Amino acid sequence: MQPLDLPKLVDRPGFMLASDTVYFNRWTKYLFHSIQQHAPWAHVHFHVFDPTKQDLAWLADANCSYSSETTPEHYCQSHQDRVVYWCAARYIRTTEIYTNTTPVINLDSDSVMVKDLSIEQFLQDLAHSWVPVAAKRETRSLCSALGLGLDQGRHAVRQTLLDVYTNSRLTWALDQRLCDQLLDSNQLQPMDLRYTDYKMKDTSYIWTGKGDRVEKSSFQNALQRYKHLVN
């Protein structure tokens, strides 16, 4: 894993959206525009894996910051290998993108913001680092969102994943299992579904389209509000 070596770290609170070029064009642009609609104060940083020239040109013209990387060759044997790397790298990279004093929520791209969010509420919710949980699942952590406050949570997540990357091999759902461990050691706190609601309740700020849920009419209707802005 090569360091990003960005010229300047992000120091504005908001959201980090990581995806490959396919998800970037299919989902992430919609999520970006929905954030601009419902949280116009929020800074958005894109991290794109294996971007095309067209992706980079779009990013250069957007009201955002961005970074990119090439998927390491030893995680390119299959699409699942790539996804496994991307799921871990998006959290490992956070400390290379943001200052330690910048609260940020790292979101799955197949999400859409549906409710206005104030910066005051955002900062209150980022008083500590968290991961949304579903108590009835074998792995509690829903890594479709990760809230990183001003504590050591981002460093704990990075180091835990980086140790596996360096000394072993990343595997499917590793991020969820490791976040469960960080919950047990109180390095992450449990969060409800307000920032990644697969049940798509009106009281939540962000809906996520886990699996076939992306085809639900409510999710698709929320996306369609931004279709005219996506190119």
Q: What features would you describe in this structure?
A:
It is a single chain. The chain is an alpha/beta fold and 231 residues long. The chain has one domain: Spore Coat Polysaccharide Biosynthesis Protein SpsA, Chain A, CATH 3.90.550. The chain is built from eight helices and nine strands. The protein has helices spanning 21-38, 53-61, 79-92, 94-97, 119-125, 153-167, 174-184, 217-224; strands at 14-20, 43-49, 65-69, 104-107, 111-113, 130-132, 145-148, 189-191, 206-208. It has a five-stranded mixed beta sheet, with helices on both faces. Strand 2 (43-49), helix 2 (53-61) and strand 3 form a beta-alpha-beta unit. The longest helix has 18 residues, at 21-38. The two termini are 31 Å apart. The mean pLDDT is 95.
In short:
The protein is α/β, with parallel strands linked by helices. It has helices at 21-38, 53-61, 79-92, 94-97, 119-125, 153-167, 174-184, 217-224, and strands spanning 14-20, 43-49, 65-69, 104-107, 111-113, 130-132, 145-148, 189-191, 206-208. The protein has a single domain (14-229), classed as Alpha-Beta Complex (Spore Coat Polysaccharide Biosynthesis Protein SpsA, Chain A), CATH 3.90.550.10.
Key terms for this structure?
231 residues; alpha/beta; Spore Coat Polysaccharide Biosynthesis Protein SpsA, Chain A; 5-stranded mixed beta sheet; 8 helices; 37% helix; globular
Q: Number of DSSP helices?
A: 8
Mean pLDDT metric: 95
The CATH homologous superfamily is called Spore Coat Polysaccharide Biosynthesis Protein SpsA, Chain A
Largest sheet: 5 strands, mixed
* Helix/strand order, N-terminal first: EHEHEHHEEHEEHHEEH
What is the CATH level 1 assignment?
A: Alpha Beta
The Rg value, from CA coordinates, equals 16 Å
The percent range for helix content is 25-40%
Query: How much β-strand is present in the residues?
Result: 15-25%
Low-confidence stretches: none
User: What is the annotated CATH architecture?
Assistant: Alpha-Beta Complex
